[in-house]
């Protein structure tokens, strides 16, 4: 199964499960540090006992696990959107490399026009405007459809990547939060 095959609902469940497991693993050490002062290591049986009773300890962490889950889920979904947009841009670039069949006759007429334009031009004259403009127009017409799609994808990518690391920063700040630190 590829990353893109996972539904947003499944991502939400997996992130929540992972965050819950993280807090269950964190519970024994956190509880011991708070109750005894300096942090001490615990026996595995003591850690297992606390972990097995973790559902009754959910109030201990408050809403922090759900906030952390939401920040992680948002960052993952944003990453997926960025990844799919980059993939779309890549495919678009590959398609542009191949000349569209409808562009071939237009390009041919411009290419054929070039020798005629060059013959009309004397060494002291400016290039004939028609040929120069016709060439530009032919290229624009051939690339117009792809260019619009490309432009819209680039705009999406810029918006998404402007604050891409925000979700990860939120998770990092969560651990630096004095409220969270009081549990450690």
TrEMBL record:
Membrane-protein topology: Lipid-anchor; GPI-anchor
InterPro entries: Glypican (IPR001863)
GO cellular component, one term: side of membrane
Protein location: Cell membrane
Alphabetical UniProt keywords: Cell membrane, Glycoprotein, GPI-anchor, Heparan sulfate, Lipoprotein, Membrane, Proteoglycan, Signal
Record bears the keyword ATP-binding: no
Keyword Lipid metabolism: no
Signal sequence interval, chain numbering: none
GO biological process, one term: regulation of signal transduction
Pfam families (alphabetical): Glypican
Entry similarity comment: Belongs to the glypican family.
Protein name: FZ domain-containing protein
Lineage: Eukaryota, Metazoa, Ecdysozoa, Nematoda, Chromadorea
């Amino acid at each position: 199964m590829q990353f893109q095959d996972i539904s947003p609902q499944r991502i939400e469940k997996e992130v929540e499960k992972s965050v819950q497991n993280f807090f269950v693993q964190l519970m024994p050490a956190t509880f011991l540090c708070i109750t005894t002062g300096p942090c001490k290591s615990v026996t595995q049986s003591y850690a297992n006992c606390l972990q097995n009773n973790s559902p009754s300890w959910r109030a201990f962490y408050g809403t922090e696990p759900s906030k952390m889950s939401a920040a992680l889920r948002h960052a993952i979904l944003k990453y997926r959107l960025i990844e799919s947009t980059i993939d779309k841009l890549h495919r678009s670039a590959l398609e542009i490399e191949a000349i569209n069949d409808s562009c071939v006759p237009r390009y041919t007429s411009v290419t054929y026009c070039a020798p005629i334009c060059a013959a009309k031009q004397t060494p002291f004259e400016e290039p004939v405007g028609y040929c120069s403009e016709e060439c530009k127009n032919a290229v624009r017409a051939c690339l117009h459809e792809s260019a619009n799609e490309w432009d819209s994808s680039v705009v999406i990518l810029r918006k998404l990547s402007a604050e891409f690391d925000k979700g990860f920063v939120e998770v990092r700040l969560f651990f630096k939060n004095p409220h969270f630190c009081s549990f450690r």
